Amino acid sequence: MGERRGFVRIVSRIYLPEAAAASFRLAGVAKALREKGVEVEVVTTTPPPGLQASDQDRVRRFPVLRDKEGYIRGYLQYLSFDIPAFFRVLFSPRATVTLVEPPPTTGFFMRIANKLLGVPYVYYLPDLWGAASASFAPKIVVRAVKALEAFAVRGAAAVIAVNEEIAETARAMGAKSVHLIPNGIDTDTFTNEVKPLSHLEREDIGLADAPYFIYTGTASEWQGASIFISALAQVIDKIPHHLVFLGKGSDWDLLKEQAAKPELKGRVHVLETLPPGETARWIAGADAGLVSIKAGAGYDHAYPTKVLSTLACGTPVIYTGPGPAREDIEAHSLGICVDYSVLGVAKAMERLAAEGFPESSIKKLRTWVLENKSLSASSEEVVQVLLQNLHNQARMHN
Questions:
Q1: Which residue has the higher pLDDT, 133 or 300?
Q2: What is the rounded CA–CA span in Å between residue 97 and residue 114?
Q3: What average pLDDT does the structure give for the chain?
Q4: Spatial separation of the C-alpha atoms in residues 207 and 366, rounded to whole Å
Q5: In the chain, what percentage of residues exceed pLDDT 70?
Q6: Considering the entire predicted model, what is its pTM?
Q7: Can you give the pLDDT at residue 362?
Q8: Any idea what the CATH number is for the domain that residue 279 is in?
Q9: In the chain, is it the N or the C terminus that has fewer CB atoms within a 10 Å radius of its CB?
Q10: Could you tell me if residue 1 is inside a domain?
């Protein structure tokens, strides 16, 4: 268990090529570290079926339990990663600092492992798992999740929070040091400078030359993405648009079931996840990206990364629900925002279909992301936190 100086370990159940906010975020941090000459090791899982890893870092992967959608979702699945990861970290070369991604069970095991090794860890806090679980889990489970989350936060040398609400909660939990670093998006992958979809690609799913709105990424109970299908049903004879869903999640079967209803006339296409570069081509060809957060489900504070990937491709957003992303969209004219209601979404679709989105505003969408929400900028901030702890460790050993 000898130490390699300058060695940073990232521990996460999810990593590229699996498309998720955490994957892009952590890969961005790894890239920024490498560019500074810092060695990086990633402890993660083998990709889900259909995805092939092309690792640039030193990545140690192992298989885990996944649900039928291919997600590591649920505490048995989490533990199938956490317990092996605990022993792999404990009996491997000792890192100088570790970056830990939730869930709280991973934070729990990594606090113990790093304590035994005498290695500080930085805990990423993109969501409040305890608060989110309160919307669907029994009280005893909610208490346990909150306790695990607080345990992981208190033991961290530093906590990275993606918004002020999460930062305040982390401080209340007893975090030693909290850094507010909002999420960014990979603007090299998600760009409007992509090869347009071919007629064959569109024809293959039944889209042909029709305009469409697109939903990408996770669709789970807290997003309530089925609202977009219900909204289209309200205006299906008034607008020519189709809906395209690219991704997966606990609501994916529900979306497929709804899409098959005769009254939708084959206008809803629920597809599987595509590689990020291919997803960008679909986003860039859409009239709008669809983003939803179901109010009161425990994620009112969330800033969905799909907002940023959509805007980075030069596509406006139809956003329904609460959250800080809504404030940005409204303040900077990045799309249309409505409350979480079928009628509100239907009116937004009808308005966009009739009026389009101003060309002058479309040109500003990607620029706004580059100036305010780029992955390279947020990754650099995270790296500074890691380097600070790395240098502190180096001084202790000199």
A1: 300
A2: 9
A3: 91
A4: 26
A5: 96
A6: 0.83
A7: 85
A8: 3.40.50.2000
A9: C
A10: no
